[in-house]
Write a structure and sequence with these properties.
By secondary structure, the protein is mainly α. The chain is 89% helix and 0% strand. The protein has two helices and no strands. The protein has helices spanning 5-30, 34-69. It is elongated.
């Protein structure tokens, strides 16, 4: 394990807490019916997955192109 392991775990925990409080709680409290709640929850997960995918692609691009840029 690297020396950054505790920090990455901390950042993942903070990200999960932020996602839960900023996205899931308002989504689940905005709709009364179960179908609306499930639909909003799934759409929120889709948006989260899109952001994670963009982050992975940008991170990979930076890693691959870093020697060319500097």
């Amino acid at each position: 394990r690297s020396t950054l392991f505790p920090y990455t775990t901390l950042f993942r925990s903070i990200a999960l807490i932020a996602f839960t409080t900023l996205v899931l709680v308002p989504v689940l409290s905005s709709y009364r019916g179960i179908v609306g709640r499930v639909g909003a929850f799934l759409l929120s997960l889709y948006v989260l997955a899109a952001f994670v995918g963009v982050g992975v692609v940008v991170g990979a691009l930076i890693i691959v192109k870093w020697p060319d840029w500097f």
